[in-house]
Amino acid sequence: MIRVFLTIILTLAAALPVMAETRVAATTTSMAMLARTVGGDAVSVTTLAPPDRDTHYLQAKPSMIRDLRSADLVVAVGAELEVGWLPAAIRNAANPSIRPGRPGYFEAAAQVELLDAGGRADRSGGDVHPAGDPHVNLDPVRMAAVAEALADRLAELEPGHAAAFGERAAAFAQEVEQRLPAWEERVADSPGVVGFHKDIRYLLERLEVPIRGYLESKPGVPPSGSHLRELIAALKGSGPGVVIRHPFHPSGPVEKVAGATGWATAALPLDPPLGATDEDYFALIEDYVEAVAAPRRKGE
């Protein structure tokens, strides 16, 4: 009897349709969040770069190559953000379907208009990106546009789920549209922000928050004493504001400027945590909004 029962169960299990997941290798947790949000149960997502590291300066690792070897789709930020490690990792993965130019390779930066596009590829200007500033992940509006483009790409790979991909991308875009006015209202009349690197500029410009300067005199170049003194002189007497860095940035230059000007400080991640959902992403944007708005409220 038991043998007959097991035979029936195995027969029924074999008759059930098998859900094949599209295996996505995302370069950052922001890109992984989008893939997870748009793809839903039809995708399995791995993240190549941890959120507590500066993506500019990573190196190709065996774990990355392993994940890329089995991937159906790479979701990268693009605009040469990962140029120091992703091309080498893809090459060593020996997976032709995910090479640039193939349907299995997707760049977020290629889907939206970038700031600083068309600049000179001259390293004397610092860590420049001739294709444009790649740090689109902190702009929810651009991320919504990327989500819609990603839905189209996933539909190419899995046509049977095309409608679901499109619906999820549209829901993400709608959520951004609904949240944006409240974010803008909360930071209205903000006296401004000093960033460490230009990677927060997309969000600040989206919310029309004044950018009062950067601790780096040039992108990717460590803050110099002379540059910090000039920045402090420009900020003194200008009212409250906030100096923002990421956890992988040194705190010394931030504290020097804040101590001399009375400005607040905030250490906020550039990307959401591993395994992030869309709610985790929106919570990260909320943290930035709170940091930018708080100095104004304290001064009232």
Termini Cα gap: 79 Å
Q: Tell me what portion of residues adopts beta-strand conformation.
A: 5-15%
Q: State the fourth-level CATH superfamily of the largest domain.
A: Nitrogenase molybdenum iron protein domain
**CATH class call of the largest domain:** Alpha Beta
Organism: Thiohalorhabdus denitrificans
Protein name: Zinc/manganese transport system substrate-binding protein
Keywords: Signal
Pfam family, one: ZnuA
Structural notes for this entry:
The chain has 300 residues and is α/β, with parallel strands linked by helices. It has two domains: 22-181, Rossmann fold, CATH 3.40.50; 188-299, Rossmann fold (3-Layer(aba) Sandwich), CATH 3.40.50. The chain is 44% helix and 11% strand. The protein contains ten helices and eight strands. The protein has helices spanning 2-15, 29-39, 62-69, 86-93, 140-157, 162-186, 201-206, 225-235, 252-261, 278-299; strands at 22-26, 43-47, 73-76, 105-107, 193-195, 211-214, 242-245, 264-267. A four-stranded parallel beta sheet has the order 2-1-3-4, with helices on one face. The protein has a four-stranded parallel beta sheet with strand order 6-5-7-8, with helices on both faces. α4 (86-93) links the parallel β3 (73-76) and β4. α3 packs across α4. It is globular, with a radius of gyration of 22 Å. The model is unreliable at 4-19 and 296-300 (pLDDT under 50). It holds the Pfam family ZnuA. One of its GO terms (biological process) is cell adhesion. This is Zinc/manganese transport system substrate-binding protein. GO terms for molecular function: metal ion binding. Keywords: Signal.
